[in-house]
Amino acid sequence: MDLPRHHTIRETSHRIIDPFTDHQLATLGRALRLDPGATVLDLACGKGELLCTWARDHQTVGTGVDLSTVFVAAARERATSLNVDVTFVQGDASSYVAHEPVDVASCVGATWIGGGVVGTLELLGRSLKPRGIALIGEPFWRAGPPNEFLSLPDLVRQLGDAGWDLVEMVLADEHSWDRYVAAQWLNIRRFLDEHPDDELAPAFREELSTGPLDYVTNQRPNLGWGVFALMRRP
Ligand SMILES: C[S@@+](CC[C@H](N)C(=O)[O-])C[C@H]1O[C@@H](n2cnc3c(N)ncnc32)[C@H](O)[C@@H]1O
């Protein structure tokens, strides 16, 4: 099983495959007050930027699991270039449990692997030390008509109802959303110019023609996103 090709093309230029900038990812790493040698498991780790930069900045030791062969190859290259102690496993993370309990277990931008936020917390909890920290990266709705996402208060309520203390959070903003979404447009345009006859070209052409207006109209003003740090209640 591998991630469909359209994702890896759209996210060619990204190191972080979520609406965080380098700065916000670093802020989160500092906020967690990680000790050197702390162990971090990242499920659906993408290109491994969280694990690699935290290993560089805080001397953490990481394991990442991701479905995408392309992203895992990029993650391994990044770990080599930063000379950090991070291991990547290519495969389905939806039932992955660490061999040894870890200090931090995260799933950032992929809570479908546990069937939603509560199931993903339960999955992460199986790998955590008793006072370990779970990280969940999740969208929420800031404004606009009701939709499939919870509001921020309802999301925080859900995390508490599931039996976890919210102990830190870092939230994306409209500018960091742009780095995730708008950066995809140039990736798509370049792909179209270089591969006009690719089987994905018609769908990408449609996406580039309609996506930016849809984004600024519906998503940018309304959709929030954040990473929530949680510790299980005793
Ligand atoms: C939105 S990206 C987030 C990547 C990374 N956490 C980040 O924030 O940069 C979602 C990731 O989930 C991965 N993914 C999707 N389903 C998966 C599964 N069942 N097991 C492992 N990885 C999965 C994709 O390959 C992709 O890298």
UniProtKB/TrEMBL annotation:
One Pfam entry name: Methyltransf_25
Key word Methyltransferase present: yes
GO molecular function: methyltransferase activity
Domain Methyltransferase positions: 40-132
Xref: InterPro entries: Methyltransf_25 (IPR041698), SAM-dependent_MTases_sf (IPR029063)
Any one Gene Ontology BP term: methylation
Keyword Methyltransferase: yes
UniProt keyword annotations, A-Z: Methyltransferase, Transferase
Protein name in UniProt: Class I SAM-dependent methyltransferase
